[in-house]
Amino acid sequence: MGPATEKASSAKARRLVEMTAAYRPSDNAPDEFIGADDRPRGHWLEFFDKMAGLGADDVARRFETIERNIREQGVSYRAYGETTERIWPLSHMPLLISEKDWAVIEAAVTQRAEIFDLLLNDLYGKGELVRNGFLPAAAVTGSSDFLPPMVGVKPRGGRWLNLYAADLGRGPDGQWWVLSDRVQAPSGLGYALENRLNLTRAFQAIYRDMNVRRLAPFFQAFRGGLATLASRSDPRICLYTPGPYSETYYEQAYLARYLGFVLVEGADLVARDGLAHVRTIAGLKRADVIWRRIDADFADPLELKSGSQLGVPGLVETIRQGNVAVVNALGSGVAETPALLGFIPALAARLLGEKLLLPNIATWWCGQAREREHVLSRLQDMAIAPAFGAAPTRSFLGGSVVGGELTPAQRQRLAEAIRARGADYVGQEVASLSTTPTWVGSKLEPRPFVLRVFAALGPDGKFHVMPGGFCRISDRLDSRAVAMGAGVQTTDVWIVANKPVEAVSLLPQNENVSIRRIMGNLPSRAADNLFWLGRYVERAEATLRLIRCLGKRVIENEDLTAEGAATMQRLRKLLIEWGAVPAKPKIALTPQSFLNTALFNVDEFGSAVSLAQNAQRTAAVIRERLSVDTWRIIVELLQGLQNCQPPLDEAELLEQADIALQAIASISGLAQENMNRVAGWRFLEMGRRLERGVNTCRFIRSFGMEQARGADFDVLLDLIDSQITYRSRYLIGVAPYPVRDMALLDPYNPRSVAFQTARLAEHIATLPVLRQDGMLEAPNRIAINLDADLRTTSANAVTSEFVLSVERRLMLLANSVGARYFLQGANVAQAEKQVGLA
């Protein structure tokens, strides 16, 4: 070993000691790094050794990279009850689990998934467990998640569960314990995948050298398992989301994109003629498999919760007929009921003939006399929770409480409530969570965590456990539960193997996969939002161009002349008419404050920042259809405007308008160069073209018609970004007919109205039709007529009335596109043939 190598090795050893020497686990909780023998576990020591080899500065840069990537990708979530998104809180340190530990977890999670599947099959089938006294009927029917309409229904494929999750922690003895089960609509899969991508990107070499097991085989098995539930070789699999205000909407959109599923809301689905369909721009298209992320009782307002705005009327009957697979099956949420937890060990023996491999938290349901008295006798030491989870209950508990933390009066009231209606309560052992190393500031500290592990039914009919999971870490040492709220982080879970692992991806391995080049059946809701995203972005651009034109003229003092003053007044008038500035402000606005309002005032619906907000809000709904780069620029556009500190002076205003316009140009460029020319791109383009055509008509009517003067024509050329083209084409100064021609009729100018109508006619002509009868549908007919009129009109025949008629016909076309393609009503148009509907 040479002197340089020896020096580097010594520095590395010193950094390892500095990193780990001060780490002190809690005395009353197991720790992942330090074992029960007070010695570091080998795989953790190897990880920290490799971290020490990077150097403190390099590690800090990698941590910064993780945080920057999370922000730029827009990874987010909502805490319960919040309307705004939070940045995803990813810890810098993974949770490491050895292969030996993982083998126990894998077997136990698989076993529990099988138990719950058999349990649900019995509860909704023969009912022998209740009939023979192995389960009290009240422990089942007391849950609002038990759905009587599903009794006697056989799910497609015969399985009630396709996805199961268990929340785990180490118990006081150092062994893993099950804290709770997730069978309703388990969340966290997408976030686990995001965590993996971000941490491995930062520590790629360490990840590879430690032989971390890959996640792709699990997702491959899950996707394959869902595909086997369909009756067609090329099924349409939908991910059914509650919508963009769901706490985990980002994850749902991410999973839909990653797995190639169609992201749908209730309004996108329709049950008709015994089949489930997706509303698309080509009419109704059959949905074969629906992976739901909504609670089951919201799924069908006809047979379940009648007030649901998320559901699909008739969906239960479609399931009953066996024509659609909904996973997990409606009604499976009853298995999460805390009242059933105490019966799981006996059910393992009854249903599988096996002993439970991992214990769950000891639980006593107070609906039984002996268990109730046991809980009351130990009320001081127990956690008391509603027996039927988060569902509405007659108990006065808002959640779990620890008897010893209540006042004597509160404890007495709780005891009386348990005696009066014991069935509403469970008593549980108080669980102290085990801890894992976490970076806090610049050092390692132990923090409590919960590990969620997933099992999915594969195409082979067996449960496959994801080699990793979704880990939540609390910032409080005494935490007894970890929910996604303030002070909680998440992290990736590395299952460390003893030998190199095979790299696997979701790409098909079969070389005989048929090649397809198709437009795709775009859901109507997605088409609607892509269309409006295009319109909002274009509307923001037009507003910014007006602001820039006015700002330049304020700086140049062009309002000193009568002609210049009239032009500036028209610019102000148009901004007021567009809702960027109030028509009757509370105080008189100076030119500077007028421009600040138009650019930054969120209270004005037409201001640049409000339009950017609408663009981001619309983009968030269709995030699965946008590239990371596109989303990042949309976010930057809004943040760039929001981060300004008005009032700005005129020069600063122009600079911000230019920056925002550059962001919009980047969005347009990405759409042109990176988006596949399928239906989604066409609707985004149609929104932009329609909005640009309408806006240009308004520009022409304000600055290019009979009352216009030289300064007005100059503004018009600025607004349509055609100054250079005009000057190169016409050696004379601005003249009415050439300017009108360039703005309205020139088919070669990408800013002219004629250019927009030509592109609109092309886009609409390629879209699907509902009936093959040779007749033009309304959008196609309007676009062709409008395009023909502009092609055959000469500049000297253009009048204000003609321009206004073009503007109105463009707005009519927009409404016609919406009525034809954005199929959201109950009487949705459908394709001509229902038999064998694709």
TrEMBL record:
<feature type="domain" description="Circularly permuted ATP-grasp type 2">
    <location>
        <begin position="94"/>
        <end position="473"/>
    </location>
</feature>
<dbReference type="Pfam" id="PF14403">
    <property type="entry name" value="CP_ATPgrasp_2"/>
</dbReference>
<protein>
    <submittedName>
        <fullName>Uncharacterized conserved protein, circularly permuted ATPgrasp superfamily</fullName>
    </submittedName>
</protein>
<feature type="domain" description="DUF403">
    <location>
        <begin position="522"/>
        <end position="822"/>
    </location>
</feature>
<dbReference type="InterPro" id="IPR025841">
    <property type="entry name" value="CP_ATPgrasp_2"/>
</dbReference>
<dbReference type="InterPro" id="IPR007296">
    <property type="entry name" value="DUF403"/>
</dbReference>
<dbReference type="InterPro" id="IPR051680">
    <property type="entry name" value="ATP-dep_Glu-Cys_Ligase-2"/>
</dbReference>
<dbReference type="Pfam" id="PF04168">
    <property type="entry name" value="Alpha-E"/>
</dbReference>
